[in-house]
Amino acid sequence: MPNPYISGTGFYLPPRIVTNDELSTYMDTSDEWIQERTGIKERHYVEKGEGPSDIAIPATKQALNAAGLKVSDIDFIIFATSTPDFYAPGSGCLLQEKMGFNEIGALDIRVQCSGFIYGLSIAEQYIRTGTFKNILLIGAEVQSTAMDLTNAGRDTAIIFGDGAGAAIISATDEDRGVLSTHMHSEGKYLKELWLESPASNAGYPRINKEALDEGKQFLKMNGKEVFRHAVTRFPEVINEALEANNLTSENIDLLIPHQANLRITQMVQKRLSLRNEQVFSNIHKYGNTTAATIPIALAEAFNEGKIKDGDLLVLAAFGSGFTWASAIMKW
């Protein structure tokens, strides 16, 4: 069976940079307060009218160029986002039209922060079975429009940003690529990190003045509970991947975790006894871009020369759902 490997990566951040100091003009906060709790210095916001399919375009172009491929070479699109352009259709279909892809399949998946790894697991199966040769995997989010930029939404609003990352998953006969992927969920904690409206179960109409007045259209997060679960699930799912491949944390050349909170990353690093050079972090520049954080970090790490052929990479995520996942690969 062919092996699935990442043949090209790309990423894009909207030009508008929103600093902690700017947020402090909207709510009772400060640069020092935000950095101390999250490690974030700034994040990027789209302009009005831009959706995840729009910011996915430059990321996709980068990835195609890095892989030496053309639009016509892509057999399938997997689009991971929790913030689709529209309720329907999916953002993958929008990207297919905007970039002129062939009449190929376009699959949207909504697994929030774990979306890229879930998408990678799907691409892995299609490649191994020989169904497709080159799959475009996107993680793109526009979270800024789901933020309550007041004191009521402060603890969530300071964390999230917008961005897009792309990877081309290709088939190879070489000894490289994805070794395994691992996924979990625990839905009983859904209200610890969720966006309640619009909702199909809200009655008619799906969006009403009462829901808007209550702020149900804004993303809500119980930061303490998310942190408590994340620092447990991250090491668990990373060790699961290592054990499945008879490896230990000492074998990791680079861990690229979902960029949720610098304190979470640091605690995970400590629990796994990893050195600083074994962990990649860029949350200080971009904040939490949900399904986009891992592909953005992956592309940036590669561009900075922190990934070389033969390296053992581990990707790991935890987020809304709760869902968590890991992937291990030989670059």
Topology:
Elements: E1 3-12, E2 16-19, H1 20-23, H2 31-38, E3 42-45, H3 52-67, E4 76-80, H4 91-99, E5 105-109, H5 115-128, E6 134-141, H6 154-157, E7 163-172, E8 177-185, E9 193-194, H7 209-213, E10 220-221, H8 223-244, E11 254-257, H9 262-271, H10 283-286, H11 293-303, E12 312-319, E13 323-330
Parallel strand pairs: 4-5, 4-6, 11-12
Antiparallel strand pairs: 1-7, 2-3, 6-7, 8-13, 9-10, 12-13
What does this protein look like?
By secondary structure, the protein is of the alpha/beta class. The chain contains eleven helices and 13 strands. The protein has helices at 20-23, 31-38, 52-67, 91-99, 115-128, 154-157, 209-213, 223-244, 262-271, 283-286, 293-303; strands spanning 3-12, 16-19, 42-45, 76-80, 105-109, 134-141, 163-172, 177-185, 193-194, 220-221, 254-257, 312-319, 323-330. Helix 8 runs parallel beside helix 9 (262-271). The chain is globular and about 55 Å long. The model has no long low-confidence stretch (mean pLDDT 97).
